[in-house]
Specification:
binds zinc ion; Aminopeptidase; single chain; Urease, subunit C, domain 1; 13 strands; 384 residues; 2 domains
Length: 384
Amino acid sequence: MNYREVKDWLVTNSGSFPDWSNSRYVRTMNVLELFPSFEPYISGKSYSGNDIFALKWGGGPIKILAWSLMHGNETSAFRSFGQIDYFLRSNQLAESLNKRVTIVYIPVLNPDGAFDFIRRNHQEIDINRDARSNQTEEMRFFKSVFSTFKPQYALNLHDQRSIFGINGKRDGVRLALCIPQVSVSYLKSESLEYNRNSLRQIVNDVFTNVNYEDLALWSHFDEAYYSKAIGEWMQEAGVRTLLLESGVSGLDYNRSESVLNLSAFILSYFFLLSKKDDSGLCTPSSWELPKNEPLLRDVILRNCQVNRDELLFTTDIALQYVEYLESGELKYKLVVDDLGDLSDLIGRQEFQDISIFASTSFKIGQDVPLDIISQLNLNGLQEL
Ligand SMILES: [Zn+2]
């Protein structure tokens, strides 16, 4: 099945997806119950003693390793796999896939961070910067799955912040893709070069059947080399690794559309891999995707008259939504992000000529006072 066919099927069947896959924060993460198509493969413990599970589906020769929630507040791919799991147990064509691929999936690589909805683990280490030093239980667990399973392909799944956009537009990004880089010392390695070109071609094949509305919101993430990140480590280990980041499009802060795009992408990618003939030459190709750029802010107040300590000045002000947990529920609040001439940035929502009295608490990083929020006619997130 190609992207378009998978997406149509998912849209038609979306009423049957598990409820939890619609929520950006999932408190209960008993993954053995959440992904019934998969069977337990390997388990381990996090720094704070929570279970980490690797699950397995299929029995074919093409081996794919995928993981999500390496960063505990990036739930989109975890939610996508809820939809993928439903597809795998409900669509007849999954049977042919089952004989061709074996998927090992680690739904929650960072269970401590995921429970608290924070990026890092409980040592306050960013697991995605621990690929060389292996100082976290979570990375050591990942490496044990890696060496047992020996994958040929990998899906490194993350979210990105709402600051990213494309083509100078306020529409945001649904999916950002990149093929992690290898260090200069490997650049002449023909096999690693082949791997990256081959992956680029398979992804190009996915693009062929993506509808215009979705493709218009996909971007190419910068392929700078991060030596400490797991994607680079995997690529250098000879595993064809693709990084996918789910972003915010429009005012879809729950990322429902991004999750759906990601599910359709991953499933159509599995179908293409299942048919892959690995013999033959692979010509270098490129992607016709716009560059992922950090040019957006959630709210920008243009030409704002500020009265602070009886001094008047005119400035642009950027405000950003921050996600936080309160009594186990995900909430959003607006914080002051930047002041000054912000003519190089674009607001997802913009307001002109607002006058504000700025108290001493009106500072970068602080909550936006309610009397200022009440002057704005905000769309999208009303629970502030
Ligand atoms: Zn991440």
